[in-house]
Amino acid sequence: MTKYKVVMTNRLMEPALQNILANCEVKLWEKAEPIPREQLIEWLKDAHGLIASGNVRVDEELLQHAPELKVIAQAAVGYDNIDIAACTKRGIPFGNTPGVLVETTAELTFGLLLCAARRLHEAWNFVKGGHWVPGNNISFGMDLTGKTLGVVGMGQIGVAVARRARAFGMNIIYHNRNRRSDEPQIGAVYRSFTELLTEADCIIVLTPLAAETRGLFGRKEFALMKKTAYFVNASRGAVVDTPALLEALETGKIAYAALDVTDPEPLPGNHPLLKLPNILIAPHIGSATVETRTAMAVLTADNLLAGLAGKPLPACVNRSVNY
Ligand SMILES: NC(=O)C1=CN([C@@H]2O[C@H](COP(=O)(O)OP(=O)(O)OC[C@H]3O[C@@H](n4cnc5c(N)ncnc54)[C@H](O)[C@@H]3O)[C@@H](O)[C@H]2O)C=CC1
Ligand SMILES: O=C(O)C(=O)CO
After folding, report:
1. Are 279 and 249 in contact (CB under 8 A)?
2. Which domains does the chain have, with CATH numbers?
3. How far is the CA of 157 from the centre of ligand 1 (A)?
4. pLDDT in tens, 252-310
5. Which of 109, 214, 315, 319 gets the highest tally of CB atoms within 10 A of its CB?
6. Mutual orientation of helices 156-167 and 102-117 as an angle, nearest 10°?
7. What is one GO cellular-component annotation here (predicted)?
8. Ligand 1, from 82, 206, 213: best to mutate by most atoms within 8 Å of Cβ?
9. Could you tell me which of 4, 29, 12, 158 has the C-alpha nearest to residue 75?
10. What is the CB < 6 Å shell around ligand 2?
C-alpha cells in the first residue's frame, strides 16, 4: 500500500512521531532554525499532509504550491500563522490542540504573576550575586490576596487562570469578545475594556492574535492602567505594542510586566526590554511540560491521520470542511 506523503516542519514528542513515521512517508525538518520557505515549497509539491508550526506562515501563496494537500495539523491551540480562509477555500481542514494544554498554560500564566508580584527572579539574582547581607534587600513586591485581577480573553485558559486566582483570594473582573453566561460559575464580573484597564491591579492577557487584537495594548491602554499595575501577557507577543510597553515600564506608567510571549520571538539579545529591571520574560513555555506537549503531539497526529484517511479531525478549526 502506498503511504501518504507528509511534511513535518518540526519534531513532535514520542509516541506521536513514531505513529506518523509508521503510517506515512515523512519529510521532517529537524534544524533549530525555521524551515526556509523555498524548502517548504519544494517539499509540499506532492505532500498530502502538513504538520505546521508557529514560525511557518501558511497562506494562499504557499497552498498554491501544495496541490495534493488534504490536511494541515499543528501542535498549538493558537493558529495566527494560518490563513484559515485560504485553507477552507481549498477544502483543507486545519486541526489544532485546544483543551489539552489549558491547565498547564494556566499554571505558567498564574506562576508568572506570582513570580512578578513577589519579584522572585530579582530575589534569586540578588542572592546569587552575593548581595544578601544584613540591611540590604530587594524592592518589596505586592500581595495578590484581596487584589483585583483583570483577565482579557476569558476563554478556556482564562477560566483556568481565574480558578487559580480565586484560590489566592483575588477578585476577578474580565473582558471578553462575548460576555459569558456562566459568570457565577467562573466567579468573574464583566467589565468594558476601559473599565478593566482602570480598575485592575493585575492584568492577564489571553486572547488569540487576530486582526482585532493585534496591538490591543498600546500607549493609550497602558496610560489608563494603575501606576502600580502588574501586566502579564501569555497570548501572543503582537497583541501588545512592544514600544508602548517599553515606554510604560521605563516611565512608570505601570509597575511591572511578565511575558511568556514577545514580538518578535525570540527577542534579539540587545533588545531594550531585556535591560529593564521591572520585567520577567519566559521563552514561550506556556504548554511546555512533558505531559502536555505529549498530549498535544498525540492530538496533532490524530488530526493529521484522520484528515489523510478522509475522516473528520478530532479538533478542527474550519469545521465547514471537516467531514
Ligand atoms: N503562552 C503559551 O504557550 C500559550 C498561549 N496560548 C494563547 O492563548 C490563546 C487563548 O487560548 P484558549 O484560552 O485556549 O482559547 P479560547 O478560544 O478558549 O479563548 C480565547 C478567548 O478570547 C476571547 N477574545 C477573542 N477576541 C477578543 C477580543 N478582541 N477582546 C477580548 N476577548 C477576545 C474569545 O472570546 C475567547 O473567550 C491562544 O489563542 C494562544 O494564542 C495558548 C496556549 C499556550
Ligand atoms: O498552543 C499555543 O497556542 C501555544 O502558544 C503553544 O502551546
Report:
1. yes
2. 4-99+290-321 (3.40.50.720), 140-276 (3.40.50.720)
3. 7
4. 999 999 999 999 999 999 999 999 999 999 999 999 999 999 999 999 999 999 999 99
5. 109
6. 50
7. cytosol
8. 206
9. 12
10. 76-78, 101, 286-287
- Nearest bound ligand to CA 191? 1
**Coil, strand, or helix at residue 180?**
coil
Return the ligand number nearest the Cα of 178. 1
Q: Are 75 and 54 in contact (CB under 8 A)?
A: no
Name the residue of 161, 194, 207 whose CB sits within 8 Å of the most ligand 1 atoms, as the mutation to test its pocket: 207
Q: Map grid coordinates 539579545 to a residue.
A: 269
CB of residue 178 inside a 6 A radius of ligand 1: yes
Query: 1 pLDDT band (50/70/90 cuts)?
Result: low
Type of residue numbered 227: K
∠ CA 190-193-199, rounded to 5°:
75
Q: Specify which residues 171 forms β-bridges with.
A: 148
Place of cell 530575589: 123
Cβ 153 under 6 angstroms from ligand 1: yes
Contact 198, 224 (CB under 8 A): yes
Query: Does ligand 1 have an atom closer than 6 angstroms to the CB of 97?
Result: no
For ligand 2, the distance from its centroid to the CA atom of residue 227, given in whole angstroms, is 30
Residue 315's CB is within 10 A of a number of other CB atoms, namely 19
Distance 101 CA to ligand 2 centre (A): 8
Q: Which atom of ligand 2 is nearest to the CA of 288?
A: 7
pLDDT in tens, 57-109: 999 999 999 999 999 999 999 999 999 999 999 999 999 999 999 999 999 99
DSSP 286-302: TT-SHHHHHHHHHHHHH
